[in-house]
Amino acid sequence: MLVAVGSENPVKIKATESVLEKIYGNVEVVGLDVDSEVPDQPFGIHETIKGAINRAKNAYSYEFDLSVGIESGLMETPGSITGYIDLQWCAIYDGEKITLGVSAGFEYPPEVVEEVLKGKEVGDVMDKVTGVDNLGQKKGAVSFLSKGLLDRAENTEQCVLTAMIPRMNEEVYFKELL
Question: Which CATH class name applies to 2-177?
Answer without folding.
Answer: alpha beta
